[in-house]
Amino acid sequence: MPRSIWSGSISFGLVNVPVKLFTAQSSKDVHFNQLHATDNSRVRMKRFCEAENVEIPYDEIVKGYEIAPGQYVVIDPAELEAFDPKATHTIDIEEFVHLDQIDPIFFERAYYLVPDERAAKPYRLLAEALAESEKVAIAKFVMRTKQYLAALRVVDGVLVLTTMLYADEVVPSEELDLPDATDVEVTERELKMARQLVDSLTVDDFEPDKFKDDYRERVIELIEAKAAGELVVAPAGDAEPTKVVDLLAALEASVAAAKEAKRTKAGA
């Protein structure tokens, strides 16, 4: 059983639902340590002062914010504490919206909310109300001295809280240096083939188990083989994709390949 990382209550009007927060995601990235090549001993990072060319103790380190190259404003931790949000231990629901009104670019990290035994009824009441209305709750809460914006929704009867970015944390697409497409013409035939390609790759249900991190699995196989003393030969790299000049021909070939893949899968 995973351990909860936060406990408090959902504030829903005059109703409080005591809950515990559990992470809903588990990173599977392969992490490596840095080693000294001559003896495989661990490389440690030290706190080093460039000006004095010496290692310094932790108690001589202060926080600084760079306002110009090489110029810093030093901030005392006590000064920051005055601005820490009050830890109320409540998830305060501010409003309700339809899920399709939230661009996925705002979503950050997901957590499960599990009720205390005494809160089973109000927890189910809120979950069913969200499910029937097909809406999500927008809320704020404080965890580890940071205030979060969050979306609260129902997944298989369980309340899921997803932290969100604030509006000023999302980079507007207008800031991108996109090529001018005003003079680009898309023919009806090209559009038709593009729609056919989308249709040929469309499935009824998203099945996340179908997708695997091939790179991670290969790295783990490599590590296990080397740990067992096996001789490992690096596989040949994938061939570079051929540059396509004829967009329509590429679309037609893609549609044909997608249809053939579907036929092969159906036969299997």
Question: Could you explain the architecture of this structure?
Answer:
The structure is a single chain. The protein has 268 residues and is of the alpha+beta class. Among the domains are: 6-25 and 84-169, Ku70, Chain: A, Domain 2; 188-267, no CATH class. The chain is 25% helix and 28% strand. A seven-stranded mixed β-barrel has the order 1-2-8-11-10-9-7. The chain has a two-stranded antiparallel ribbon with strand order 3-4. The chain has a two-stranded antiparallel sheet with strand order 5-6. Strand 9 (135-143) and strand 10 (146-155) form a beta hairpin. Helix 3 (188-200) runs parallel beside helix 5. The model has no long low-confidence stretch (mean pLDDT 87).
Entry summary:
Helix content is 25%, strand content 28%.
Question: What features would you highlight for this structure?
Answer:
268 residues; alpha+beta; Ku70, Chain: A, Domain 2; seven-stranded mixed β-barrel; two-stranded antiparallel sheet; 5 helices; 11 strands
What's the CATH architecture name of the domain at 6-25 and 84-169?
Answer: Beta Barrel
In the CATH hierarchy, what is the class of the domain at 6-25 and 84-169? Answer: Mainly Beta
DSSP E strands, number: 11
Report strand %.
Answer: 25-35%
| Broad structural category | alpha+beta
CATH topology of the domain at 6-25 and 84-169: Ku70, Chain: A, Domain 2
The dominant shape is extended
| Number of alpha- plus pi-helical segments | 5
Rg to the nearest angstrom?
Answer: 27 Å
The major sheet is characterized as: 7 strands, mixed, barrel
